[in-house]
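Convert to structure. Protein one:
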Amino acid sequence: MAGDGERGIDLRDVMRWVGPIIGPDRSFFWLAIVYGVGISMLSLATPISVQMLINSIANTALPTPLFTLSAVLLVLLLVSGLLGALRTWIMELFRRRFMARLVADVSLRAINAANPYFADSRRIDLFNRFFELINVQKVVPSLLIGGFTILLQAAVGFTVTSFYHPFFLAFNVIVIILVWVIWRLWSRGAMRTSIALSHEKYAAAHWLESVGASNGFYKSASHIDFALARSEAVTANYVAAHKRQFGYFFPQTIALAVLYAVASAGLLALGGWLVIQEQLSIGQLVAAELILSSVFYGIAQLGSYLDDYYDLVAAVEELALLYTIPQEAPTPPRAVPLLPRDSDLAMAHVQFAHQGGPVRFDFAIPHAAHLVAQGSPGMERVFANLLKRHLKPDNGLITIGGVDIGALDTFELRSEVQVLDRPAVVEISILEYLQLANPAADPAAMIRVLKLVGLDDRIAALRDGLQTVLSFTGYPLSVGKTMQLRLAAAMLAEPRILVLSPLYDMVSRPRLEAVFDSFTDKATTIIYFSNRPEDITLAGFLWLGRDRQQVVADRDSFDRLRKAGGREALADAVREEAVREEAARDPATMTTSPSGPRDA
């Protein structure tokens, strides 16, 4: 989007952003426009009534036409007021519906994001754009009620007065051309700089969020100067962007004010001269003054509505970023269900490109196997991403229980395949976190798994116990305790496949062995990637190399695979160094690793 701002903005860009954001609410806008048309037509009631009154007094001087005219004017103005009230009510309904729809849209897009690790890619501040809904809620009604009314009244007023005399027609055309010139001269620059200003606003917010999340890093003599200098820099960037934006908006406002003064004076001179020449009646002059004076005053007020419009452009451009979050492929329309409690895992001829060279997976893990695993650098992450469908291979077949995971419902797949690789949770209470793992689990089962993983004493020491609300980092639990909590939740969920990362090396061996023993009578395949495989004994071992994978039952065979893998890892390092050297020589050859989102 930023690139759009740099090359210039026009109405086509604005409509492209507006479409998915407020387009679904167009029915509200059409109603508001219809009411606005009625109000604009009824706004002519007063000047026309005055014209008729002057002509009536001049010709008859009778009270009956006066009272009749007053009664008709009262009715018309009451109808106009009713339409205005209905328009305000419609815009209030729009505000409510827009907020509800935006929350639903963004929630679904975040959940279905192809890469859901927004914090890892430093994109978590993307969701600050949600607050642009406040600008949209304020600006859209303002433009539809105030700005549209001015334009519509101007169109009606120019049309009516143009029939008074050809000179009025020419005068009105000149005013319209001048308004268009004022718009054309400064509007593109104003839209472009409004977007740039909004970007600087969010850059400042991103910096302040990073300071707030620094956990005291800048409370140091060697760091505070950097923080203050960066704050000064983002402030200076914002002020400079604001100055550039004002440089377009302010001249436009002045030009509209000057046009108002010149047009009002010109109208008086032209109308008076036509009356002197007896080409215009006094009633027509008064009506023209009433109609066009309000039109010209409205033109002078367009400056504030143009400011609202530029705010709307910046707001929809920012909100459009939420609608450009890459989405993963939708679930097949006829998703295949998994067979009951069958956890066979097979990867057949699975091939894909990876940093340092191609990778080929071809192995099978039997139902309910418990394996200690190691692999070549990066293979653990790739394996997890393949299972969760964050990474799709170039070719090959991945099956669970004999069913292709590509044919499964994505949400069901990720309930049945759990990868515990990071000390991160969602901001809910410990009790809610465990309940989400298995809504049918009873409180006794929760306490039992907490005791098994060694968390019962730590949670008992918390002031709120199970009601303690965790931050997304797991605080007030430590990294190790957070991983133990995730393991307890997995024990309640009983997934078909459970993958543990080397972070569980922090947990004592007796504790892990007790957890693994609890899965003995369950249909869960456990794959434990460990940096200390010699300390853990399970039913078998898994080696994941780039082009060789194998499940073995004895430790000696596994150790031989690890030694061979060390030579493979050395070859991988040589290949990766060659890739980096080639990229340094020709930056255009650099590509993004297709290994999926970072999981460690």
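Protein two, convert as well:
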Amino acid sequence: ETQRLLNQMEREMELARQAQKSILPMRSPRRPGYDFGSLIVPARVVGGDFYDFIPVDKQRLCIAIGDISDKGLPAALFMAVTFSLVRAETGRSDNRRQILENVNKFLLRLNAKMFVTLLYCILDFKTGILQYSRAGHLPPIVIDQYAKFVDIPVAEGQPLGVFENLHIDQQQFTIPDGGLMLLFSDGLHEAVDSFGNPFGLDRVRDILSFLSKSFHDLIICCFKMCC
């Protein structure tokens, strides 16, 4: 009986991994003056992390990153629903707050006893301005061409799927020329080293500052941190 349950759990984990893999973008956007990259390292217990790049028009790109509160197949299914909702609402509206409120209303109706943190961004390629709506997710980390951290405005933001009267953190800032921006989920700074110690946000920031001139090395370092 125990072996049967273990086999069933493994099958569910594989389904969850496939669900996560199937919806994520196949490649990163290409745009003169910008260098995009993305990385997700599946854990043994699959969670509900996701990201997406959605073209809004010729000048703007939507960048979304989210994290489901649960793990396993239920989280993967909840992730797939949230992913589809964000895409659908982006196609219907240009209002960031309205988009997140609509997604929140649908998730509340599911009564799934799960929630999702979401960072929903609109990048203007021409001006470098990033407008974002933050629903309980970690804010971006931004550094300039001199590896100095840029102060990002932050206010209260609540996750989706919990509250009817949702508080959304709406901000905007300009990505500096030659700068770098990192969007991430808590799986990055909660990753542990060989001694079992979590990396923490301070170490993430140190690595980002040290490797800011080498985007390729930064991606490799993030991969090693999560493995």
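The domain at 2-34+43-181 is CATH 3.60.40.10 (Phosphatase 2c; domain 1). The chain has one domain: 2-34+43-181.
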